[in-house]
Each structure stands twice: as C-alpha cells, then as structure tokens.
Amino acid sequence: MVFTLSTPSFEQVLTADPEALRRFFKLAKELSHRYFGSRIRFYAPGFIGYRNRFFDSNPYSFPSISVTGSWCSLNCLHCRAKILEAMRPALMPNALYEACVEVKEKGGLGCLISGGCLPDGSVPLDRFLDVIGRVKRDLKLTVVVHTGLVSRSTARKLAEAGVDAALIDVLGSDETIREVYGLKASVDDYDRSLDALKEAGVPIVPHVLVGLHYGKLKGEVKALELIAKHKPSAVIVIAFTPIRGTPMEDVEPPKPLDIAKVLVIARLIMPSTPIVLGCARPKGLHRVKTDCLAVGLGVNAIAFPSEEAVDLAVKLGLQVAFSRSCCSQAWKDYLEAS
Predict the structure, then answer these.
(1) In this structure, which long-range contacts are made by residues 23-27, counting pairs with CB atoms below 8 Å and at least 24 apart in sequence?
(2) Can you tell me the distance from the alpha carbon of 43 to that of 46, in angstroms, rounded to the nearest whole number?
(3) How far is it between the farthest Cα atoms of the chain?
(4) Which residues pair with 144 in a beta bridge?
(5) Which pLDDT score is estimated for 2?
(6) Looking at domain 7-337, which CATH architecture does it have?
(7) 320 CB-near residues (< 8 Å, 6+ apart)
(8) How far is CA 270 from CA 110, 264, 274, 275, in A?
(9) What is the pLDDT of residue 290?
(10) At what angle do helices 256-269 and 18-36 cross, to 10 degrees?
(11) What confidence tens digit (pLDDT) does each residue in 269-294 have?
C-alpha cells in the first residue's frame, strides 16, 4: 500500500512547524502500530562491536565480507573506500567460501557480501555468484548482498543463487550522484536496477542515505517515492556520517530531527512496509537523539540501538526483541512473528 498524499505534501514534512510535525509523527506511529503492532526489533550483527546491559554481539554472527578488499574505483567524497577497510577481504571465490565456512563453524547466522564499485557503479559480483549459491545450498546461511547498480543479467543470477536480499543505496538527486559519488549515472539508473531485481524475484531492501549531499537533505523524498514503486521488502534509512581522511570529514551530518522526518515520510509513503533505522549513522548524543525519535515515531527496527532508545521502547510498552542478524532481515522476522 502506498500513501496517497502528493509529493508536495511529503515535502511539507521537511518544513513543517512543530505542531504540524507532531501530527505527522503521531500519524506515522499510528500507521506502524496498525500494520505491525506495538513491537520493535533491535539488531546487532557481528560486523560492529556492540555490548551493553541488553545485548552482547558475536563477531561471527553476521560479518561483512568485501569481494574487492579495500579497493573501490569510485572513491566517493564521503567514503574514499574507508568503510571497506573494516570488512573481511575475500578477493577470490574460494576465499569467500572459506570465510562463509568459518562463519558457519563459529555458529554465525549469515553474512553481508559487499565490495567497492566499478566505474559503472556496480559491485563486481558475477564471478562470486556460483559460490554464493553453494553457500546457500551447503551451509544454509543467510546471505545479503550490496549490489550497487545492477544489470538484469546479474539480477537473474542473484535470484538463481538464492540471496536473501539485495541491498542498494538509492539516490534521488542526479547532482548528488555526480558530485559526491563521481558517478556518470542518474536516478533513472537506480530505478532500472530496482526494476531488474524485482523482476528477477530478489527481495529488495533499499537504503536511503540522509544528508549525503554535503549534510543537506536533497533527493531523499524522490528516492523514497522511487523505491515505493517497486514494493520493497523493507526500507532502511541511514545517515551521512563524517569519516576521517575523506574530503567530507568536516561536513556536519544531518540533524537527528531531519533523519526522523525522512523516517516519517518513509512510513507515510509505505505504511505497510517495515521501516528500519540502519547501522550507518552518527554516534554519541546524536545517535541517542536520533534513536529516541525513531522509537517515538514507530520505526520497526533499529540497528545497534543506543541504550536510551531501548529504555524508551520498554517505557512506552513496546514488545522488544533483539537479534544478531542483519537489520535487512526485519521483513522476514516480522512475517514469521505475524
């Protein structure tokens, strides 16, 4: 189901006065509870250490693996491939399989397969797809994949391999794609990628990166509307986080309230789709504020939540559950619990 407000109405959420914004927040929460009940799920997969009085993550529960190591041809302004450095490298298919065997032997649930992009914005997955199929058949692990822009041929092969979800950052601004990614592509290319994955039968869990345009909101609403057309399994909202050693290290991230507004718009556009606050977002007090706003507006899941957000969820009487899986699997978890 897609909410029937027009685009200008969705944009109004971004500029709403405090009273109007409270009404939008209330509506988002009501829609969430109508479709999903008074529940929230918290995720702590192993690729980031997470330990508090509520939960203790296991580094093998759901690690991230890069099929390009720390290499990426795009070297986007906000990342410069720094994110890849924290992933386990697996440059050859046999290395990927061995990494997955280790995950299985250590009691892990699955893995995120990622990597840097080629100049066309795609992640070079094709030569790993046979092995991914073996991992699914032999090891029974959950496998989610960062695809970047994807062709119909690759989408079909991902479906044949049996991946549990395709994760793709969707941008709604051609200017941001050119300036920040340095990619000769357009919003239409993301539309075509989503269409290819959906047509192939791959569960899609698109990500919307709030504030990627130098910390400012630009194209997020358009990205959400584009995503809604393709009926995603879930939508993950993440936020630009300055990374040391990149050209955008001194750029101020979007405010917690701006991130919350995008979460509200996501709910209004896709009321029956799980809306998730993903792992990539600023830490510290910024995270506490963002997380608590997200809980208050009825988000369905949060990755690596602040303790304050968990406390708030309990205080509000929500049914709380923790998982060591990737937050992209929230849609499956809600289906199984319904």
Answers:
(1) 24/261, 24/264, 24/268, 25/260, 25/264, 25/296, 25/297, 27/268
(2) 10
(3) 57
(4) 112, 165
(5) 44
(6) Alpha-Beta Barrel (3.20)
(7) 39, 40, 41, 42, 310, 313, 314
(8) 28, 10, 8, 8
(9) 98
(10) 50
(11) 999 999 999 999 999 999 999 999 99
Structure-token match 């869990």, residue found: 205
Which run of H or E residues covers position 276?
strand 275-277
In the numeric block, the tokens 């101020």 are attached to 252
Q: Following CA atoms 168, 172, 177, 179 in sequence, which dihedral angle do they give, to the nearest 10 degrees? A: -140
Strand partners, 209: 238
User: In the prediction, which pLDDT does 5 show?
Assistant: 52
Q: Could you say which DSSP state residue 56 is in?
A: B
Rounded Cα distance between 51 and 29, Å, is 28
The model's pLDDT over 113-149, given as tens digits with 9 standing for 90+, comes to 999 999 999 999 999 999 999 999 999 999 999 999 9
Token pair recorded at residue 224: 């959400």
Domain ranges of the chain: 7-337
3-state SS, residue 106: coil
β-bridge pairing 39-43 and 64-66: unpaired
Among 279, 326, 276, 331, CA closest to 141:
326
